[in-house]
Every structure is written in C-alpha cells, then in structure tokens.
Amino acid sequence: MVWDMKALLNSLTEAELALVRETEREQIINADEDALVQLHERIRRARNKYVGLYRREASSRVAEFGGRGKARPKNTRNAEKAEVFEDALARVSRQLAAAARRSAQLLRTERLAAARQARNMAPPTASRRPAATRPAGPAKRAATPKRASPAAGQAARKRQAASAASGARRQAQRDSA
C-alpha cells in the first residue's frame, strides 16, 4: 500500500486527528493503565469502523468490478484510514502491555511484602525467667488438642469416595450419550 501519511492525516476529521495525536509517544508514555484502556477502546472502535466501511463498500462493488481486489482502487481511503488507526492501536497496545506489566510487578511486590510482614507478626515468645523468680507449684501442662475419632476419618473418606463415584457415573453417562 503506497500512501502519503501526511496527506492522509490532513484528510482526517478534526476528531479523528485528535484521536491519532493522543496516541503519540509523548502523550501516552506517562498515562496510567486505566487511561490507556479507555484510549485503546476508542482507537479500536475507530479502526473497526473503517475496516467495516472498507469491506462493505468493496463487497457492494464486487458485482461491478468482479472481485473485492479489483474494487480496491476505488475504496483506498477507508483502507488507509483503517491502517492509520491500526498503527495507532499498535502503539497504544504496546504501551498498555508495558503498563500492565509494571502494575503486575508492583502488585506482586506489595503482596510479597504483606506476606512477609504477616509472617513476621508472630507473637513474641516468652523468655524463660530464672529459677528464683519462677512461681512455686506444679508446672501446668498445655492443653492438648482433641483428636478426631477414627469414625470421623472413616466418614470423611466415605464421603470423598461417594463423591468421586458419582462424578465417574456422570462422566460415563456423558461418554455413552
């Protein structure tokens, strides 16, 4: 496709030209992720508009010219506008991907820091006092946690087996249908 970018940009409407200018590197380099998502959606809509126009016009001329390829020279403006918006969409997509990677890395770092902080928040252990300051009397034993009865473990295994069996029956029924 041979076309003069400057001439094409001059033929865009003011709103279209403003939209393309919003995708220049200086404009999007410091944009946050939400702003980039909104810009990406607007650019994609404009690109889809001109791609659709190009295809509809070309398909309507098929009978006249014998094919979409032969009808193309009469429909270059829409194809070129679609190409301009495709280039703009690529610029915004690259910047959006970089912003998403940065925010994912930031969230990951924050999550790891929070996990480390939570792990380090264990209650301090009591230091052992010297024998002279210990209270007299029998040492208290820590309460041992109650263990589940053997019947409770057996019931859990039975429920798990029943669940697996019903899942296998459902799958066999689907396979045979």
TrEMBL record:
Residues 5-49 form a coiled coil. Residues 116-177 are annotated as: Disordered. The keyword Coiled coil applies. Keywords: Coiled coil. The keyword Coiled coil applies. It comes from the Bacteria. Residues 122-171 have a biased composition (Low complexity). This is Uncharacterized protein. It comes from Krasilnikovia cinnamomea. The lineage of its organism: Bacteria, Bacillati, Actinomycetota, Actinomycetes, Micromonosporales.
